[in-house]
Amino acid sequence: MSSGVEPRGDGSGTSEGASPNDQDEPEGKGRRKARSVILRILSASFRVVVAIFVLVALAVVFSVSVLPRVTGAQALIVLSGSMEPSIPVGAVVVAGPVDPAEVEVRDVITFTHGDPAETEMFDPETSPLVTHRVIGIEETEDGALFHTKGDANTVPDEPPVPAADVRGRVWYHIPYFGYAQQAMTQGPTTLYVLAGLLFVFGVWLLGIALSDDDDEKPGGGPGRKTDRKSEETPR
Question: What CDD domains does this protein's entry cite (predicted)?
């Protein structure tokens, strides 16, 4: 009597069942593929961030260094909050040369601050500079007097600013860049730290990329297994 069960011979060409390693291989390939996609995204993002950082740095350096030198303007660091919120503390203002006759109410000007009557050593070239807004212009026999006030101040500056003390009119300002400029002026430590962090991050990404390439090479990389039984030719 037939039992209804076909005998399983060695030459039947059928596999005796997938081994645990065979079942884990697709999952391992999926993890490597996901890691490869994440790596590519991180690498592309890193390149974009570095490119933006370089472009912004070049634009800022041109704005606060090259352009003022070419045009005769001054790049000054704001040390007080008298012009907030228009110009915050730590900003760099670029004040270009201006004819006092062209200054108008609402303009922000840079001028020397000091009273010649208070000291015999007054020097308009070395006196502290102030950057405030013009709120009024008074014409006198000796020339124009500019009444100024900081946006955050409650009272106008005293005394009014003579036309001879005007050093420039503000063209533009870059918020908070003064802090970075001071750090670079006092020493390159901050710059070295940032460069070091970027270098370490770049090496880390490169190491992951090389490791991932090795895993994807045929016959290479850990976890690659071959089912010898499935490759045998049925006899």
Answer: S26_SPase_I
